[in-house]
Design a protein that fits this description.
This protein is α/β, with parallel strands linked by helices and 230 residues long. The chain folds into two domains: 14-68 and 192-229, no CATH class; 75-183, Ribonuclease H-like superfamily/Ribonuclease H (Nucleotidyltransferase, domain 5, 2-Layer Sandwich). The protein has helices at residues 14-26, 31-40, 47-65, 113-125, 142-152, 170-183, 192-209, 222-229; strands at 75-85, 88-97, 102-108, 134-136, 161-163. A five-stranded mixed sheet has the order 3-2-1-4-5, sandwiched between helices. A hairpin with a 4-residue loop joins strand 2 and strand 3 (102-108). Helix 4 packs across helix 5 (142-152). One of its GO terms (molecular function) is DNA binding. This is IS6 family transposase. InterPro entries: DDE_dom (IPR032874), Integrase_cat-core (IPR001584), IS_Transposase (IPR052183), RNaseH-like_sf (IPR012337), Transpos_IS6 (IPR047930).
Amino acid sequence: MREQHPFKWRRFQADIILLCVRWYLRYSLSYRDLEEIMLERRLQVDHTTIYRWVQCYAPELDRCCRPHLKLTTDSWRVDETYIKVKKEWVYLYRAVDSGGKTLDFFLSSTRDAHTAKHFLLKTLAASYTTEPRVINVDKNAAYPKVFNELKAEELLPRSSQLRQVKYLNNLIEQDHRFIKRLTKPGMGFFSFETANRTLQGYELMNMLRKGQMQGVRKGVVLQKIVSLSK
């Protein structure tokens, strides 16, 4: 059965939809900001329509682009930050490699060993990540327990090391700022589902901004995204 074109039956052309989605996911803009920007270009697009586009196409773009990401290094930096969902603070687990390339993310209402293990397993399963030679974390007591469990289950190489050295995580703490800056115009999310969908787009655009996609220079992404989504 032939897969349906993702832009079929849409009122606007694919490049206009992707432009709005990309701008929202890349820059600190609200949906109403984008509505105004489009109106200045003689395109009347309601902010709720742009919201629906983001919810629909952020996961789709993530699905299309992830198989084309470059391999990361074997030195990981793992940390958590906070974002608001339903007016409550929740935990956003994130990881980058020694070169600052994004590995993965995981949103959770809890910060414990079970969540840390789930996140590390998700990151290990990604096709573009390399088995870690070393994982650097903060002083969260959950990580040594999870690290030993994964080694015992032979899901991590025996040679892998865990380091709890705070200053080595400055790299990922700086990287958090890009994501946090994007969440501010919307003042949080209304549900975990919408948060996850939007964060998929935020993280993907962050990867593209860093030049993590094969055959795409930094800042030159729209044409590649359009071609992958067709």
